[in-house]
Design goal:
Structural class: mainly beta
Oligomer: single chain
Strand content: over 45%
Number of strands: 8
Shape: globular
Length: about 150
Amino acid sequence: MNSKITRWVTTAATLAGVAVVAPVVTATPAAAGAYGCAGNQVYTKSVYANRNGYTGKIGTVYSYYDGTYNCSVFVKSAYVGTPTQMNFSIYKENDGTFDDDTGAFSSYAGPVKIKAPGSCVSEMLIMDTPGGTQMFFGQAAPPHNCG
């Protein structure tokens, strides 16, 4: 098993042990500056639940680029206002370096930033329900902003 997968499996096991209960609420995205990212928005991707029978949109990945750094955030549209365990990462595709943000977040995870001129980036996400059931695990955004 490669180290990227091992790290995700370890994080998933950690997140599975946390439980909180609350209703589903939706939110609207804010400007990049509110999330700590600089540069122009270069990519947006809606993310839909893919685990344990959950369906529907759970949030959106917003990616920005300032000419040197890629910066991304994941803004929740499910369980907004209620802390849910998440791990959100940005990966530099040509060498596997990454930055991640892990914790119980009420509205968004990130920003995550990586110096990546000339390389594609992708984002990975693990997200649980307030009850601790994993509702998303995997690639939240495929390789993008390549160069």
